[in-house]
Write a structure and sequence with these properties.
alpha/beta; elongated; 2 domains; 5-stranded mixed sheet; about 180 residues; Rossmann fold; 5 helices; two-stranded antiparallel ribbon
Length: about 180
């Protein structure tokens, strides 16, 4: 917690926060206010496997992931937090270390939209283990994927012990069933 300001006491304020020096000088009670230190580290981990290029409505799943990355990057920028990017398929495709700044946030969005991955499959568990090894400090990891892989649960648990992990499922309604069309005989 970091000192923010001193303000006049209001009924209901915690008496432990009264600043007795200011109160003595002013002749009426004043309290100290504190604010939480920010500067968190946010990592947006995006699955860029071939399944992310699927979309039956207005956009691909990859475009939805890019919109989410944009919201997260600019929210981090507004909160004075650092944001980084980890793109993966069946391997680590790109890691952009966390930084601050508008240019950096725009670069993250551009990378999610324009980066061409070399892999087409998904190895979510291995990719998550690689990311965990890359990060030396505790971070908030937002894992954006369609989770079209098997055996990633153990890696997810391991990563969540070291970091705050938020999985986000990107899906399309057509992945679960075929559209109603006349049968071809």
């Amino acid at each position: 917690m970091e000192f923010a300001q001193v303000r006049e006491y209001v009924a209901g304020d915690d008496v432990r926060t009264i600043d007795w020096n200011v109160t003595a000088r002013a002749g009426k009670p004043f309290v100290r206010e504190y604010q939480e230190e920010r500067e968190l580290t946010l990592i947006v981990a995006c699955d860029l496997s071939g399944s992310q290029f699927f979309g039956s409505k207005a956009k691909f799943k990859r475009e939805t992931a890019a919109e989410l990355a944009a919201v997260l990057a600019f929210s981090a920028l507004r909160n004075n937090d650092k944001v980084g990017l980890y793109l993966f398929s069946d391997r680590k495709e790109r890691f952009t270390p966390p930084r601050k700044g508008r240019r950096h946030a725009l670069a993250i969005v551009r990378d999610v939209l324009a980066f061409e991955p070399t892999g087409t499959r998904t190895r979510l568990g291995d990719s998550l283990d690689t990311l965990t090894r890359l990060l030396h400090r505790r971070a908030i990891i937002v894992l954006v994927s369609d989770f079209q892989d098997e055996g990633w649960e153990r890696s997810l648990r391991r990563a969540s012990r070291k970091h705050d992990l938020i999985p986000v499922l990107i899906e399309d309604p057509r992945e679960d069933g075929l559209p109603d069309v006349p049968a071809w005989l």
